[in-house]
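Sequence design from tokenized structure. All designs in this work follow the same two-part layout: the structure record, then the generated sequence. An example of the structure record is given first.
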């Protein structure tokens, strides 16, 4: 299979119809339809359900679309690296709770060493960052435990507690264990749902009431403020808290401690990435 065919498939998916994709690609519709048929025959599976107005991806089609994106991105990145070997690129990913781990001082030191540095940043969940790392879309990722470290090289920061955030009527320094909030609805990040539920059921013997689950800690804090409800998040997210409307307290539950971490692939890394890793390890004494 050729990269050109992957580009054709990607364009069909993103344009929604073969006709529109053909216009974007500046080719006629019949040859594009033939290319799609050739891809499906090679893979021996149906990728797209054809409709009168819009195409629909099959499960195999969704998977192939993701892989096309990864392959085309890797090809583009490789081309740029080979054509401009002197270009200095730092490609990293980061989750919302780890946004403050990279500081102005870090980047100031790093940019003085690499004055022509280009920074390519990707945001997402821990699992999305791991996928992007293994797909060579990024070279280093800042994530948070728990995660499966089998296929990556990981460096753990000091464990830190969860915190309870909310209005002063619900959150105060005396309510510093999760069980103190057993009668309150709590908002959490999707990343920690099973982690927190398992802890409540197995260690505290109660079922937490979780009315809202978000995909971003900042969103959880906003909705906690809107609803005047408690939010449970990692301590690292304190800088996101609006202290004009919310207060927080550290939870003493040792079973809820998590660690920020940065991960890389196990293969040999570029000197730029190695330098960046050394800077973070030295500063945080990992």
């Amino acid at each position: 299979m050729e990269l050109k065919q992957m580009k054709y498939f990607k364009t069909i998916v993103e344009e929604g119809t073969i006709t529109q994709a053909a216009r974007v690609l500046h080719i006629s519709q019949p040859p594009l339809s033939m290319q799609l048929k050739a891809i499906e025959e090679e893979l021996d599976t149906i990728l797209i359900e054809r409709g009168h107005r819009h195409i629909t991806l099959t499960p195999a089609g969704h998977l192939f679309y993701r892989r096309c994106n990864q392959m085309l991105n890797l090809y583009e990145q490789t081309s740029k690296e080979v054509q401009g070997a002197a270009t200095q690129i730092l490609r990293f990913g980061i989750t919302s709770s780890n946004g403050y781990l990279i500081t102005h001082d870090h980047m100031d030191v790093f940019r003085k060493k690499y004055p022509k540095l280009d920074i390519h940043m990707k945001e997402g969940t821990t699992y999305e960052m791991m996928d992007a790392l293994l797909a060579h879309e990024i070279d280093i990722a800042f994530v948070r435990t728990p995660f499966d470290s089998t296929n990556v090289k990981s460096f753990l920061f000091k464990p830190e507690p969860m915190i309870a955030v909310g209005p002063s009527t619900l959150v105060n320094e005396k309510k510093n264990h999760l069980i103190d909030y057993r009668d309150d609805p709590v908002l959490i990040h999707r990343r920690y749902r099973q982690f927190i539920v398992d802890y409540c059921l197995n260690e505290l013997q109660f079922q937490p009431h979780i009315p809202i689950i978000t995909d971003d800690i900042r969103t959880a804090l906003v909705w906690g403020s809107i609803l005047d409800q408690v939010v449970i998040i990692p301590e690292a997210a304190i800088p996101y808290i609006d202290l004009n409307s919310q207060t927080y307290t550290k939870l003493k539950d040792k079973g809820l401690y998590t660690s920020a971490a940065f991960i890389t692939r196990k293969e040999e890394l570029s000197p730029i990435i190695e330098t960046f890793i050394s800077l973070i390890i030295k500063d945080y004494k990992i």
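The first helix runs from residue 3 to 15. We note this feature because it recurs in several other targets discussed in the main text.
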